[in-house]
Fold:
Amino acid sequence: MTDRRDFIKQTGLLSLAGFIGANQISMAESPNKLYASKSSKWADGSRLVVSATMLFEAGGQPDNAPSPFPPNMKPGYKDLPASTWYEYGYKEGIPRMLDNWDKLGIKVTTHMVGSAVLRNPALAKEIVGRGHEASGHGMTWKDEYDMSYKEEKIFIKDGLDAIKKVTGQTPVGYMPTFCAVVKTL
Structure:
C-alpha cells in the first residue's frame, strides 16, 4: 500500500516527465484515510491539484541578456550565441511545450512579457488559441522592486495591454518580473 507522500512523489514525477496525463492522476483512491476529506471541492473528485505555468519571456530580452554561455563578447558586440539560445525558446521550445500540453490534456497559465508578445504575436495568439490562460509578466525585462508606484503601475498596464491587444484575451493575473539584467547592461 502506498502512503500519501509516496503517491505524491511518484505521480508528480511521472506527470512532470510526461509519462502519464493529468487526467490519469487521481487521489480518489487515497490509501491514507487520515488525509481523506468528506467532500471535495473539485468537480471530478480530485484532492490533489497541480498548477502548471509556462513563461513567455524569450523574444523580449534586452541585447546581451545573460545566458548559459560564458560572457565572451567585447563591449559593443552583440552576443549571437545568447541571442540564438533565446530564439530557440520562442521558435522551438514553446511550440514543443504546447504540443506536449495538448498531448497530456493540460491547460497552463502563461506569464507573458509584453515586448515578447509584440515581437511574436502569432505565438501569443497560438497559446491562447489552444485554450491556455494569458497572464501578465511586465512589459520588458526590467526590475520592478525599485520602481515608484506610478512607474510600476504603468509598467504592468503596458504589458497587460500588449497581451490583450495581440491575443484578444484579458490577462487573468500577473507575475512580477525578477530580473537584475537591465541594470548590468
